[in-house]
Design goal:
The structure is a single chain. By secondary structure, the chain is α/β, with parallel strands linked by helices. The chain has one domain (about 5-235): Vaccinia Virus protein VP39 (Rossmann fold, 3-Layer(aba) Sandwich), CATH 3.40.50. It is about 45% helix and about 15% strand. The chain has helices at about 5-10, 15-25, 30-45, 65-70, 85-95, 135-145, 170-180, 185-195, 205-215, and strands at about 55, 75-80, 105-110, 120-125, 155-160, 220-225, 230-235. Helix 2 crosses helix 5 (about 85-95) and helix 7 (about 170-180) crosses helix 8 (about 185-195). The longest helix is centred in the first third of the chain and has 16 residues, at about 30-45. The protein is globular. It starts with a helix and ends with a strand. The model has no long low-confidence stretch (mean pLDDT about 90). It comes from Pseudomonas monsensis. This is Class I SAM-dependent methyltransferase. Pfam families: Methyltransf_12 (PF08242). GO terms for molecular function: methyltransferase activity.
Length: about 240
Amino acid sequence: MPSTPTQSADKFDTSRANEYARQSRIALAGYDACHDLAACMLAATLGPLRGAKVLVVGAGGTAQEIIAMAALEPDWRFTAVDPSAPMLEAATQQLQANDLLGRTDVHLGHVEDLPAQASFDAATLIGVLHHLNGDDAKRQILRSVQARLKPGAPLIVAGNHYAYASQPLLLQAWGQRWRQQGASAEEVKAKLGKILQGADPPHSEAAVQALLHEAGFGEATRFFSSLFWGAWLACKTR
């Protein structure tokens, strides 16, 4: 059966939250660049809008998207949502260390838990979709975000796409990335086995675009790519 968002959050326990900052920067070559460019893409789309309110879905872990956006736009405010308490705690610590808690409302839970009348100027959904099993769960979260965006508002979606087993060369390169960072052959094998379990990424860039269209977003512009990972910006159309 397809997993629920709550079940997907269960794998992000305290152990995983504690290692997330290091692991994510190895697993995604260009982690910080992706978040920096996401901030640039939103700023370029919103233009001189002051005091923008940005919804950050799946904010747990590093809170890097908020840190990057806040550095570029000092008057933006953020609403951070994540269903994993350990991951949200890790993000809160990063926000506190960067003096950003005063600009961020932190919510433990799901997008659906936010008031239906919430109205945001932009949103990010980074590293989330491939952890949701099945297209129905992916559509649900995209539609929940869309419902809380102003007309024409931009959304950043970033995460793995392609069925992992369909891209053996990318899998091997991903293993070499870990070896490059000092992992042993046994560790690389274990990590390759882990990536094939417990995740269900969209199987192509076209599949990402289709999910966005179905949720009420227009044509997506891809602005970052790294092995399995892609990042896109699309705007609300209805």
